[in-house]
Amino acid sequence: MTKTSPAVPSASSFIRSRKHAAPCLTGSALAVLATLAAPLAHADGGNKDVDPTIPKVEVTGAARRDVQAPVASSSDKFTAPLLDTPKSVSVIPQEVISQTAAVTLTDALRTVPGITIGAGEGGNPVGDNVFIRGYNAQTDTYVDGIRDSGSQSREIFNLEQVEVVKGPNSAYGGRSSAGGGINLVSKSAQQDNFNNASVGIGTDKYRRVTGDINRTLGNNAAFRLNVMAHEADVAGRDVVGGDRWGIAPTVTFGLNGPTKAILSYYHMQSSEIPDTGIPFNNPFSSGVNVAKNGDGTPIDVPRETFYGLANRDFRDTKTDIGTVDLRHEFGGGLVLRNVTRYGKSQNDFVWTQPDDSKGNVVLYGTVWRRANTRVTDTETMANTTALTGKLSTGAIKHSFNAGVEISRETTERAAYVFTPGTNNLLTGNTVCATSGAATGYNCAPLVNPNPYDPWVYTRSVSPALTKVKTNTRAVYAFDTIEFNPQWMLNIGARWDEFKTVLDTAANGATAAVRAHVDTSFDTYQAGLVYKPSANGSVYVSYATSATPPGNDGGDGLDGLTVAVQNLQPQESKNWELGTKWEVLNSRLSLNAAVFQSKMNNARVTAPDGTTQNVGRKELKGLELGFSGKLTNAWQVFGGYTWLDGIVADNGYLNVGTTAAPRYEPSPYNGNIFPTTPKHSASLWTSYAFNKDFSAGIGMNYVDKVYANINNTKYAPSYTRFDAMASYNLNKNVSFQLNIQNLGDKLYFDRVSSPHYAGVGAGRSASLTANLKF
């Protein structure tokens, strides 16, 4: 039989996006993109002479082997297929996650250029700390479209795919950074029976077991269970490692009816010794000590050097998320959906930071073992109700989504205190002219520190408990307006009310602290899409984001303080010009985009010494991406990103004294964004030599990354290679060998702290048996 249908949606590894208005980009840039796009317009056999107003005829039946199914959007807020979404969005599919042997979110994100991973620091908890396009997106992680609060290190055992939205994200997710957001798409019960399991062993005590079982319950319901147990050390690093386990059941009712209910639960907990990294060769000294100045790169010590204390350092986490997802189809494409979620996360750690800020590194060849500690519980309640549908107003077609969201986040945070303390016992301060037992082992030699020093102190939780309560309400609406098959307008708007209160209990001579924010903000997006062919699009877009004080909800670097409580939200704007194409019979997705973003009211120190919204940051860049198959046997995934970010106005610095301050314009105006590599690229490619054997290789390149706004400390550029080979023993058993960091490259992949750089893992290997039964 035949039926009429609209153009086939995107098969890309690019997800949906937002919509924006008049971009501030040049006509020459548009001409370049149009020129690049022209040879692709008919790469899948499209005929330019065909009248696009004539309905397409689709013959149903068995799919051709060389046609790949389009990647569907997981979010109702994306009202157009990926191909026609005017935004840079990348989807990491399950196949790439599996082939690269990723076991954490940060492992998976390594395949997307333009993303860097930050390090923990004094006010920044250990956990996923992601920078997108140079902006901190630590609080911009979502699980199935709902904000996932609390500092965590996220697993992938229950993920179907990872979606990275680039550029301002507030119209979709509310308060957010200017860089973008990450949405984790969970596995759910399916209408098939299957049993999958994997058992992996490897170097560095690697052990991993996963299970994925799905069962139908009659004709209209299904149950799915995912489980995971994992343990491993970090290749090339002494002491560092740990274990974790998780379970994620889900049940779906109404698989074949108009009303569907999905009930799911996720639990994951871990226990580990976190990494300390390597301190920077600090360009600290002046005058008589100038000969001891460093070059700003990490200290040249053996890769395995660990500055922590094995009998003191630890990190224990626990995450629980329960979700009820209800939806009803009224017919005619109209769907009402309500999602309720409760989540709780705990992050408890003592972690040694090799602090270079005290001058010990260059003056004495020692480090102070600074103890960063945290005891945090975060609870979240969230509910969203949305209506999705299609309608026509004359010849104009609309695909819309509108809804309301409410949430409440509560964080309780404290620190550990030690008796007699963590300063040098000889001096009572952080000066470490010597190291060893006399200092209480709080000072360690720069070379060959002993992680098993007999450090024995009494540990207790500080009575200075901080409580942060955050309430949000939001309404939003999105619409893709199709004027004709060649032209679409994608628009969206959101209003947020954001209220947060911080209370810190008095502690000895320290008085109690209270701060609060009560603000609201509007964010927008608009994008004009032109389709020169059914398999391609060219777009211009505009989007905004808002980052209010206390954006992190009490558990991150962007915390609420008395100094910032009266400030307005930081607002960012992004202009983008791009093109997307589905070629080779929709097997391969290609995209290109140029963009420019500005944050015009960044929080910095003002001329009078107060914190005000007077700063400015500017970023421009280029992205290229590809995902899919060049042939039935040859898969590719990756891209390239060029970023040029500068701190246009960093406010003022005190060049006087504390008693007699004198503020002058910051000497760092014009410096490069920290955590922002100018060039980054990634590639994962695999080839099936026959039905049983395939192999793959991956490459990641990251340019030099500055760790501070002074641009004096940095991690050098690096290129890392990975490899994979798999063999199908039979239809039920296959084996996969992965070698990570094939060349055993020494590199530094976490650099947001100005005091140390995180060391990338050395070469490791794992062999996994994948079972179907």
From TrEMBL:
InterPro entries: Beta-barrel_TonB, Beta-barrel_TonB_sf, Plug_dom, Plug_dom_sf, TonB-dep_rcpt-like, TonB_rcpt_CS, TonB_sidphr_rcpt
Keyword NADP: no
Ion transport is among the record's keywords: yes
PROSITE patterns, per database record: TONB_DEPENDENT_REC_2 (PS01156), TONB_DEPENDENT_REC_3 (PS52016)
Subcellular location: Cell outer membrane
Origin: domain of life: Bacteria
Motif segment (TonB C-terminal box): 756-773
Domain TonB-dependent receptor-like beta-barrel: 279-742
Family to which this protein belongs: Belongs to the TonB-dependent receptor family.
Name by which UniProt lists this protein: TonB-dependent receptor
